[in-house]
Amino acid sequence: MNIILSKFSGYCYGVKRAISIAQNSIEELGKVYSLGSIIHNKRAVEKLENQGLQIVDDIDKNYKNILFRSHGVEKKFYNFANEHGVNIIDTTCTFVKKIHQIVADKYKSGNEIIIIGNKSHPEVIGINSWCDYTAQFVGDEKDVEKLKIDKNCNYVLVFQTTFNIEKYEEIVSKISEKTENLEIFNTICNATKKRQDAILEISEKVDMIVVIGDKSSSNSKKLYELASSRCKSIFVEDCSELDQSMFENVKNLGITAGASTPDFVIDEVIKYIQDLN
Ligand code: SF4
Q1: Most buried residue among 68, 125, 133, 153 by CB atoms closer than 10 A?
Q2: Active-site residue 248, yes or no?
Q3: Residue 165 in this model has a pLDDT that exceeds 90
Q4: How many whole angstroms from 117 Cα to the centroid of ligand 1?
Q5: How far apart are CA 121 and CA 222, in angstroms?
Q6: In whole numbers, what is the pLDDT of the chain averaged over residues?
Q7: Same domain (yes/no): 66, 126
């Protein structure tokens, strides 16, 4: 079996940065609390927990240090930490920070915010907090019909960083039909786009694609959606979910991994498949 590993797979810039800040903080400060999972990957989080990171569901004034994850947290947690003297270790990715700033500035100057993405995803909940939870949401083309548009209002469109690039044009054009008072910020991140483009290219050359990522990772799920729309694909968290029968009659195999999948998990999967050969 010939294996083609996507040239863009595994940790993105934002995740690498978050993990490195977390590791340095643990070394320097000892115990560090992380508000929610620092990234969407159980294996990577387990490693950090063994080094001294503790995942918590809520902030507490007794914590000396609180780490904010790469896909961002709600504004209220910054306010709480600042009011109670809790030291913030902010690993929010710069691309997500940029969306927070756009939303905060545009909301302050009187615009209505529309977020294109999954409204229950923590990144999107975080973004919505920067306009006091007033945003409307579009998860897919069908939701455009449900938007409440007032002709006297100006609207600002931002995208969840991991939104599917293939749906961008269609959604923008449908919303543009409903209002002309629209300012669009394409905030889909480059890492996502590169991984999605690369997997579309690979799908032309292979019989099957293995997507490696945590089931809670939005960008990994999107990669799987794209891959499976083009060819037979499987979505696994690590090599424990693989077995030989999955690769019957596969001559050319593509492999990709979400932006929060660590190299050691990708290497394990590649080794497992090479051993089948
Ligand atoms: S996927 Fe993009 S926005 Fe998300 S952490 Fe990585 S670089 Fe940042």
Answers
A1: 68
A2: no
A3: no
A4: 15
A5: 13
A6: 95
A7: no
CA distances (Å), 38 to each of 14, 48, 68, 127, 205, in order? Answer: 11, 9, 7, 17, 35
163 in Cβ contact with 117 (< 8 Å) = yes
40 is in an annotated binding site: yes
**End-to-end CA, the chain:** 6
The Cα–Cα gap between 71 and 38 comes to 8
Kindly give the distance from the C-alpha atom of residue 152 to the centroid of ligand 1, in angstroms, as a whole number. Answer: 35
pTM score of the predicted model: 0.85
Instruction: Determine if ligand 1 sits within 6 Å of the CB of residue 171.
Output: no
CATH of the domain at 116: 3.40.1010.20
**Tens-digit pLDDT profile for residues 51-88:** 999 999 999 999 999 999 999 999 999 999 999 999 99
Q: Which of 74, 112, 123, 237 is catalytic?
A: 123
User: Which three-class secondary structure state does DSSP give residue 88?
Assistant: strand
The answer to whether residues 164 and 204 belong to one domain is no
Domains identified in the chain, total number = 3
- What the block records as the tokens of 237 is 């968290």
pLDDT by residue (tens digit) across 194-220? 999 999 999 999 999 999 999 988 889
Residue range 26-55, pLDDT digits in tens? 999 988 999 998 888 888 899 999 999 999
Is 233 annotated for ligand binding? no
Q: Do 250 and 262 reside in the same domain of the chain?
A: yes
Give me the domain span that covers residue 33: 13-93
Atom 8 of ligand 1 has which residue's CA nearest to it?
14
- Shared-domain flag, residues 171 and 103: yes
- Which of 68, 93, 118 is the last residue in one of the domains? 93
On whether both 196 and 264 belong to a single domain, the answer is yes
Check if 96 has its Cβ closer than 6 Å to any atom of ligand 1: yes
Q: Are 144 and 70 part of one and the same domain?
A: no
